[in-house]
Design brief:
By secondary structure, the chain is an alpha/beta fold. It is built from 11 helices and 8 strands.
């Protein structure tokens, strides 16, 4: 029986984080459930490629647009299930045993979010993110997403937009995305750089602007400036 999961990760100058992300996936390879690691890169000028290839991943070059990168990776994936992860998010030890219970071809599953720092505002932010996901069925990409190929074929893949591709997909898959009990730890870098409350407010405003029809290209420009 072929390993069922293809891992797809978008990167852009991710040398400081992607090694930990890839290292957390090795247990899935050893367990025989990960078929391939596909990293779709948006033009890194650092050591991202070398790290990915050293870890046994397939490095695919692309234009710098996260939605386009993910769409390209999903199109290349051969597994029955696609596990999309950000390059600064790390799955908890033991995830490979838990995920086996969620090989459901009629639903997608995301993880429970945590941050790589112990701080009251980090806890508040993760509580909000996990509540938003459960209440509105609106997980973000840093929570990971295990999605069956069948569901992608029925509902469409990622839209080739530079940002908010995770929200756009979640809205189309409304009622078909659920949380699985796997903790994923993501980077707090932007929050520490910009301030937890300021960055959290920016994220909420960006989401509202997108829901109200703002151009993802303009949202991406704002995001990259922050």
């Amino acid at each position: 029986m072929r390993a069922p999961i293809s891992i797809v990760i978008p990167t852009l100058n991710s040398q400081n984080t992607v090694r930990k992300t890839l290292a957390s996936l090795f247990e899935g390879i050893e367990a025989g459930i990960v078929r391939e690691l596909i990293v779709v890169d948006g033009g890194s000028t650092d050591q991202t490629r070398e790290i990915v290839e050293e870890c046994g991943g397939k490095f695919i070059s692309s234009e710098a647009s996260r939605g386009y990168q993910l769409k390209k990776g999903v199109n290349l994936a051969k597994g029955d299930f696609i596990f999309v992860l950000h390059s600064d998010s790390v799955l908890e030890p033991g995830w490979s045993e838990i995920v086996k219970k969620y090989f459901n071809k009629d639903a997608g599953y995301y993880c429970k979010l945590s941050f790589d720092i112990i701080h009251p505002l980090a806890s508040m932010t993760s509580i909000w993110a996990n509540a938003r996901s459960l209440i509105f069925s609106l997980p973000y990409g840093d929570q990971g997403l295990l999605i069956p190929r069948k569901l992608l074929m029925e509902n469409g893949s990622y839209s080739p937009i530079p940002i908010m591709e995770d929200v756009e997909l979640a809205l189309r898959f409304k009622g078909k995305l659920f949380r699985m009990p796997i903790v994923i730890t993501t980077s707090s870098r932007k929050y520490r750089k910009n301030g937890w409350l300021r960055q959290g407010s920016k994220n909420i405003v960006r989401l509202l602007r997108f829901l109200l029809g703002a151009d993802p290209n303009n949202l991406s420009d704002d995001y990259n400036r922050s």
